[in-house]
Amino acid sequence: MELHQLRYFVAVAEQRHFTKAAHALAVAQPSVSKQIKRLEDELGAPLFHRMRGNVALTPAGEALLPLARRRVTTRVIPASSWCSTKPVRAIWCESSSRERSTWPW
Asked: In angstroms, rounded to a whole number, what is the distance separating the alpha carbons of residues 36 and 84?
């Protein structure tokens, strides 16, 4: 998980649209889509319901959004903060498919 992926995630969540988020971030829309997909693959859950013309957060996206906003603005968040939210813990902290001894940022 990289900081720019979280920035892109927050922008898409706030804009409710990939193209508008890309414009606000001053990057190409395919880059935003690619990084969001990588983030979803890493977390093992979709973050957005994609609908024609806009997007909506999934429960996993709703759980991640306040933590991502905090991460993007503060640069440092202890792992315990991420794992204290049950949906995030289920996706990331307790995943049996990957062992995490350190956080990737």
From this structure: 23
**φ, ψ for residue 56, nearest 5 deg:** -135, 150
Nearest to 104 by CA among 50, 42, 40, 54: 42
Domains annotated for the chain, with CATH where assigned, are 3-93 (1.10.10.10)
Instruction: List pLDDT tens digits, range 16-44.
Output: 999 999 999 999 999 999 999 999 999 99
Q: If you compute the radius of gyration of the chain from its CA atoms, what whole number of angstroms results?
A: 13
CB 25 within 8 A of CB 94: no
pLDDT at 66 over 50: yes
CA 46/CA 55 separation, integer angstroms: 12
Does 81 or 56 have the greater pLDDT score? 56
